Amino acid sequence: MEHQQHAQHAAHEQHQHHGTDHSGHADMFRRLFWWNLVIAVPVIATSQMVEHWFGYDLPGTALIPPLLGSVIFVWGGWPFLSMAWRDEIASRRPGMMTLISLAITVAFLASAAATLGLGDLDFWWELAALIVVMLLGHWQEMKAVGQARGALQALAELLPDDAERVVDNDATETVPISELGEGDVVVVRPGGRIPADGTILQGDAAVDESLMTGESAPVAKHPGDGVVAGTVATDGALRIRVTATGEGTALAGVQRMVQSAQESRSGTRRLADRAAAWLFWVALGVAALTFIVTSIVDDPATGLTRAVSVLVIACPHALGLAIPLVIAISTSSSAQHGILVKDTQALESMRTVDTVLFDKTGTLTEGSHVVTDAAAADGRLDRVLALAAASERDSEHPVGRAVMAAAADRGIAVPSADSVQTVPGKGVRAVVDGHEVAVGGPALLSDLRLAEPDSLARATAPWNERGGAVLHVVVDAEVVGAFTTADPVREESRATVDALHARGIAVALVTGDSQAVADAVARDVGIDDVFAEVLPGDKDDAVGTLQSQGRKVAMVGDGVNDAPALARADVGLAIGAGTDVAMEAAGVVLASSDPRGVLSVIDLSHASYRKMRQNLVWATGYNVIAIPVAAGALAWAGVTMPPAAAAIAMSLSTIVVAANAQLLRRVSLRPEDATR
User: Fold this and answer.
1) Domains along the sequence of the chain with CATH
2) Annotated catalytic sites, by residue?
3) Strand 205-208 and strand 172-176: pairing?
4) For position 289, what pLDDT does the model report?
5) Nearest-CA neighbor of 309 among 462, 449, 133?
């Protein structure tokens, strides 16, 4: 456990660093851009070539280009040189920064040699313009990535700085949330943010959980309910016992999960990484060939200029940014809507799914029993429910809670019960108002050697046909009533299945319930395939059966026994307040219990893949066209590309990729929009 906590802490520290790294780089490149732009102006203005172009001559300025150009190379070029050495050359993986560093170093050395009288390849103004444009491009790139990943960091900033902790004699003290520990009791005032995960001890409030689940409507919370850090008690005061703080909170878990997704490698991203690596060697070869050929047919100065242009324009900025930025935006945006992508490969695979397999209980259904029908032999239905509720008052069984809720809904006064005795597998017995009362199923009637009266049999026959569990109420050895409970289907389930069918996706159901119950739910919702009476540990066999038919299967579940199925499926989705085991096995976690979230994941998968493909096509196509132009392939037609123009073209291609990725934010991930 201690090792796990250390690992989680390390992961959090890495996330904190990584989350601020891009924003820090953006600020650095912004400052360097503006300062070097100021220095570059006199370098360009006093360049002999620029003076010749515009027909003026500034005397006594011959040393300005080499002096200030050297400053720009050392100061403005240092980030590229250092990153090339640290991140690429030292690890023997040359790439984008190596190309940039090679281009500016060649331009600097050639210009310095010309200033010292060794040759006439003077590139000071081109070097200055090149570095300034490169700084601008990197500033915008880091800004775009930082904004995408900063959305997740903004969640942590929603936590309050302080908490109101209860101390002796019911007094309170204000402490930093870092000082809270498990077991502490805190008070949250109306409109206040909850400082840590915990359980409500006192108070009722509607809690805004939108930052975790994406659901805009506040959720009613009462004593005994759990709450998570960062959510808001909108209209009531709460007294909460802290169960988790810091790295143990659900919010910290979300951050770790999304950070892991942003660092994971999908198939498309691996393809882009390989392409970027190969592009380095292609650019280096083309640059060398360009210098040699142009030097022979023209002159070395033109050859070197074109070689530098090739190195610059081939920098795989757009290619390197094409996939990571899409991943950063999609995972951060989805997290804000309660969709937690743990593995980007799972998100990418979701677009290929043709069958969604739902676990029934707690996924398509509410996961809690309610009394759906009741009948009394003598018509006194309230008396039957009152006696049943009295017998089940202290029961933790789902049926007991359902009977109590039914009595409360009808406003029935529940009498007290004595000598309550649970009979395993049969029901419960008690003494209520001097009467011997028993509540149970067919096994209870068999044990008591009682038969169901005809008047009740007519009422319970339809319940049995649809697979409902029928329980009888026995008073003084006489069957006086019966009721049935069911786990109601979520209203959203029907809309989800209809929307999946509209997308051409088949829907299957797996459950441990009887075939009759499963078939009833399937008919109600419109499900295609049913796997019923499945043992808890065998749900993954249902996944295997579908996969053996050549299907791509997404499994949706929320329990411990769903974990093997989630892991075996092509994509595993843990839904709602699922167990930690289920969430570990899943590739995507839906913080809300709304099954429509599955539709949002499918839509996001299609949109993300579409943006990845568009960006790859653009970045690859740009290089296919730009590299030959920079090498002088169209020089015969008077079309050339100096280094500064190459830097502008390269930066523009990066901006196009970044802007295209930003369009992902237009994809609506709201559940209600997914079913339209």
Assistant:
1) 19-154+258-333+608-666 (no CATH), 162-192+197-244 (2.70.150.10), 339-365+489-591 (3.40.50.1000), 370-486 (3.40.1110.10)
2) 359
3) unpaired
4) 92
5) 133
Rounded Cα distance, 584 and 563, in Å: 8
Task: Give the pLDDT mean for 628-652.
Answer: 80
Of 478, 579, 466, 443, nearest to 514 (Cα)? 466
Of residues 615, 596, 617, 619, the one with CA closest to residue 607: 615
Query: CA-to-CA distance for 199 and 218, rounded, in angstroms?
Result: 17
Tokens matching residue 208:
């805004």
Q: Which distant-in-sequence residues (6+ apart) come within 8 Å of 341 by Cβ?
A: 257, 258, 261, 330, 331, 334, 335, 347, 587, 588
**pLDDT tens profile 366-409:** 777 788 888 898 888 898 899 998 888 877 677 778 888 888 88
Using CA atoms, how far residue 231 sits from 159, 210, 221, 228, 672, in Å, is 8, 8, 12, 6, 22
Q: How does 95-128 read in b/e, with b if 16+ C-beta sit within 10 Å?
A: bbbbbbbbbbbbbbebbbebbeeeeebbbbbbbb
CB 574 within 8 A of CB 585: yes
396 CB contacts (<8 Å, ≥6 apart)? none
Q: Measuring CA to CA, which residue among 337, 315, 341, 317 is closest to residue 327?
A: 341
From the list 201, 175, 187, the residue with the least C-alpha distance to 233 is: 187
pLDDT at 354 over 90: yes
Closest to 616 (Cα-Cα) out of 123, 117, 268, 278? 268
pTM higher than 0.85 for the full model?
Answer: no
pLDDT tens digits, one per residue of 142-179: 665 565 455 445 555 666 778 888 887 778 888 888 88
What are 464-494's pLDDT values in tens digits?
777 677 888 999 989 999 998 877 888 888 9
Q: Closest by alpha carbon to 141, among 320, 335, 332, 330?
A: 320
Above 80 in pLDDT, residue 25?
no
Looking at residue 292, its pLDDT comes to 93
DSSP 8-class letter at 246: G
